[in-house]
Known about the structure:
Layout (H helix, E strand, L loop, with lengths): L1 E3 L13 E5 L5 E2 L1 E7 L3 E5 L9 E6 L2 E2 L13 E5 L3 E2 L6 E7 L8 E6 L7 E2 L1 E7 L3 E5 L9 E6 L2 E2 L8 E2 L3 E6 L17 E5 L13 E2 L2 E2 L7
Parallel strand pairs: 9-17
Antiparallel strand pairs: 1-5, 2-3, 2-6, 4-5, 6-7, 8-10, 10-14, 11-12, 11-15, 13-14, 15-16, 18-19, 20-21
Organism: Bicosoecida sp. CB-2014
Protein name: IPT/TIG domain-containing protein
Amino acid sequence: LLIDGTNFGPLGNAFSPSAVYGPSASGYTATSCSVAIAHTRMSCVTAEGAGAGHTWKVTVGGQESDESVATTSYDKGTINFFGLSALATTGGETINMVGLNFGPVGTTVTATYGPDGDYTRYTAASCTVLSDNIGMSCDSVEGVGGPHKWVLTVAGQESDASLGSTSYKVPSISNVQKANVVPPTLSTAGGEEFVISGNDFGPTGSTHVDAVIYGGISATGCSVQ
Length: 225
């Protein structure tokens, strides 16, 4: 990294130039600093890290500079691969992700996901970096539908929406029952309640039930129990 300024001293590292950076110019220490152009340019090697809006301070000959106005940022997190893409509507499944710029292990990372235009519909749980910069995991939450793209926030820096996506599983029916009568017989007048058993119907309530259709007829008053 090249740092331009004034009063950096003569060429080289005879006066032990150094630099720190991060939020409020603290948290990260650059290495291998030296003056590349006498008095006006310093070069340093950045540390492993994450986040955005980092300010800098340099020290030359024991004299520390003021905090810089200019800032630097690490690259945004990017998801390249989801280890699990078909999610149970009950949530609670661990999704391993491979990508770039997740930060070192211990970096604070969160994630939301949802359809185009609503990437914050669901907030994933228990997100953690598993492998420095390239591997992380989150737990899914209760939900329905798809495809859902993901947005990461790594050390406070929000990513772009993922190119890949996850979806909740399609509902499956295992049984239809009316008043303990199997197979159910329904009055042609309608108005009878029946119970559909299966998997991946989504959260309790009627909010996510788009339609229940049998024999070309739409049932009414449907909700997940």
